[in-house]
Amino acid sequence: MNNGKVNRVVLIGTGAVGCSYAYSMINQGVAEELVLIDVNEAKSEGEAMDLNHGMPFAPSHLKVWSGSYQDCGSADLVVITAGLAQKPGETRLQLVEKNTKIFKQIIKNIMESGFDGIFLVATNPVDILTYVTWKESGLPKERVIGSGTVLDSARLRFALGEYFNVDSRNVHAVIIGEHGDTELPVWSHADIGMEQLETVLAKTNDVKKECLETIFVNVRDAAYHIIERKGATYYGIGMSLVRITKAILNNENSILTVSSYLNGEYGQNDVFIGVPAIINRAGIREVIEIELNEKEKEQFNHSVSVLKETMRPVL
Questions:
Q1: What global pTM score does this model have?
Q2: Cα 204 to chain centroid, rounded
Q3: What crossing angle do the helices spanning 16-28 and 41-52 adopt, rounded to 10°?
Q4: Domain boundaries in the chain?
Q5: For 295, how many CA atoms within 13 A lie in the half-sphere containing its CB?
Q6: Choice among 53, 61, 172, 179 that is catalytic
Q7: Counting C-beta atoms within 10 Å of the first and last residue's C-beta, which end of the chain has fewer, N or C?
Q8: Cα–Cα dist 309/249, whole Å
Q9: pLDDT 10s digits, 153-201
């Protein structure tokens, strides 16, 4: 809280992802106000009631209510999880046309409230819908952020931690590119604790590089496996969104692989895609351009081209 001003976060969409985010926000004591908005008003009202009943057990007080787009006018952050969900066997990119149409109306409603804060987008295909949000809102590119590959990178860290029997919080590895089938692991910059992954591999006789490819494929396809088993993914992305929210509201200058606008970085322009970026109270302070090896450059360029090709018919 700064100078008596409270941090207000507005959540658009109270489906499984949105509610996982709201639940994590309360349990981690992030922000002072959380407004829930949904096309189904009764649903958002019920969720607000349910969440409020757990407030006596929360680490700090958070005022939660079901609101309207007018509440966005004084919001610091608007988080969008609304839209159609990915169905079994459906790729994130196949959702593009349906969710682009929905998003254009949502952004129009938000901007009519006088909103002048930061957007955080999670709806898939997240990179394209973050671009749509930027275009439709007219806000500076620094204040429009997609969840990008934050969750993918967390999945990779968890998988490597399991494989090497090391706490995943001590594994430093990222996935960049599209949040989807063309994403790529940046093995050239992966560390286990204080050691480079290459060094760890060289010292471990029973660990072969082929295992890394299997680990990555399982990470890349994790959503498909989860959707097949339980219908949707929501806890991981909910916690990922809270991590980004904390970086913004607490002015952390944390480095996260969010969907950011590229303006020459990595040799690319006019696209939102998952890359490491420094996040603070102003949004994206800076896109970090890490040095990729030739294979990684080729994979990243391919990811960009697929996103641009998919975007073309709807923008």
A1: 0.94
A2: 34
A3: 30
A4: 8-146
A5: 5
A6: 179
A7: N
A8: 34
A9: 999 999 999 999 999 999 999 999 999 999 999 999 999 999 999 888 8
